[in-house]
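Following up on my earlier thread - several people asked me to post the actual chain instead of describing it. Fair enough. Here it is, all 754 residues.
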Amino acid sequence: MKPERWQQVEKIFNEALEQNPNDRAVFLDNACGEDAWLRQKVEALIRSDEAAGSFLESSAFAAGAAESSNAPHPFIGRSLGPYEIKMHVGSGGMGDVYRARDTKLRRDVAIKILPPEFSRDPERVARFQREAVTLAALNHPNIAAIHDLEDIDGSLFLVLEFVEGETLAALLQKTKLPVERALRLCKQVAEGLEAAHIKGVHHRDLKPENIQVTQDDRVKLLDFGLAKMLDLEGDLKNPSPAPNITRWNTQPGMILGTVAYLSPEQARGRQPDKRSDIWAFGCVMFEAITGKQVFDGETITDVLASVLKSEPNWGLLPTDLPPSAVFLLRRCLQKEPKQRLHEIADARLALEDAIAGGSFSPQPVTAKADSRWLRIATVAILAAAVAAVVTWNFRPVPPESGRSPSSTPPTAALIAKDSTAVKSSQTVQAADSPASQAPSVASNQVAGQPHPRSPRPTPSSALHFSWTLPPGQRIFRTLQRVIAISPDGETMAYGSNDELYLHPTSRTEAYRIPGTASALTPTFSPDGQWLAFWMRSDRTLKKMRMDGGGMVTLTPAPVLPSGLDWQGDTIVYAAPNGIVAIPASGGRAELWVKPEPGEIVDSPQMLDGGNSVLFSVTRGMGMDRWDRADVVLFNRKTGQRKVLIHNGSDARYLASGYIVYVLGNTLLGVRYNPTRQEIIGKPLPVIDDLLHTVREVPFYQFGAAQFGFSSAANGTLIYIPKDAQSGKANQASYREIRRIVNWLDDLKRQIPES
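Reply from S.P.:
Thanks for posting it. Predicted structure:
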């Protein structure tokens, strides 16, 4: 658009604003005549002005003026003190930004100049001064620095760090970012916001246009011009504004920021806080990952309506996006601020975990196919049934009814389809060794029964085994359950290198399950004939027969399910909307338990034929949120809850009359009367070195305690010890799985019925 044409639009637009709204149509008829294009542009600016309130990022005219690339910029070629203005960079509500040369320090800087026609406006001047104070308080590698504030020849301007590169918005227009690169850029955005929030500064205008990306992928946050500098102590004692700062644009009813990245509370004209930044961060992260704006529309009104009413199109998320990143997005984009992520530092930690445990470059399994495997595996596993007495269990393996001694176990048929058999090492821990005696733990509380610290149990008679994963294998994704054991206690399933493996406990080998790339959360069926899991590649729940049958899709599951429990013909699990159930044959998910506002539920278990559900419930996002959780029994017929245990999670009821649950890194057991629905006596520790990942990564919605047990009479317990990690703290991986045989007999001796 030519400058003179835009000046015509500006003139009519400003005159139209002075008219009574009821008289504007007649005014535009006379002013625009037959010029349909002119009227269309003016009416669009009027609608923008009406929808956005008195101020958005810039006035409606300033937003539209960007169309005129030939508009004159009077400061180009001039000098303001030591700063030689070289070129115009951009415009916004804060004025024009130029690239300049600092002749004193011989460096390029960015000059942000308040336009002369606004310099007499005390409100704009106050806002300009606030930006200077705000930026001066921030010093972080991911925030563009302020060098000076000057007033020369009647021009008030900021001297800012000039950042070479391009905005994230420009980058996304050119290319779709790989997932890992998008997550790394967003992590830097979170780090910059975290530094600002620590200083009490909220950006309030975070968007891709205000994120500069350098050639070496360093991120700089630009334009804290809409940020509000908080006087934290003053706000607590006296809510009056900070000295010399006019709060004309922070009052309720004013809408600030760019519409597509406004939080719902901002769109309603309410007072924003740091959670509004977190919402905008979620919008930016979604756009960086998908290349699509999360909330869109043809007009500002349409976009605002989408922000307030619509849900993001989660189907746009790529299949290789780590589950922790999916949960982060969902938590950031909660429309209710109380349900939203509370601290941007938690987002940074979640992204560190997603990057460290991502599937962007999974470690390959190096073993190659061998056509002889089918014959060898069948013979080897049959032989292992006898060898198990010596090599692993040190006890006879009872024969299975209905099966001839020469028939192939279900596990053999499944693993015979693939040749990836890799050997590991194992050790046996003597029953009376110190490692088999779990020490006492800090006291917790059974509902209604405060109790002192549990005593140290007597020496255990259980058999302890330590199994090390084969070379090249690591367990990374410990924010979800990665191990399971078959009901008969003879086969372990675990996730390693983004695939599932089976390990017959009578052997030293582990076998890759074909077709399970990107599978997570393995769970055995009650009869041990099926293995259920979640596939990240297509975000569905699936099951696979252990006798080598095909894979069956059970139900769509856009977000990683947590705490799978399979009993009878029903599977229940925790989802973001509550505890849901699906038929084991597949079908639509049914909501069984709806959380209360602010609650997070996890680890469901069906009791009484599915008429009741045992689960954990907590609130908040702290490091200890699951240690503050309650173990609750929910009656589906009456809708009533009963708290059984305070301070604990990941509970499981055992048919022998016990409940085991997790507190910190300790697995505890306590007697339970299912008829009276009451806890009996005090809990005692079973193991005290359990890996409970949620204590390490504070954001993740569910987290996981890495243990499982069989339903056999004497019981076999498996778990990952917390100290079996390797690598850096934020890239921890695990290679050891421990197994305790006859642990239930030992528990009964420690906690008798009386």
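The first strand starts at residue 79 and ends at 80. That should answer part of your original question.
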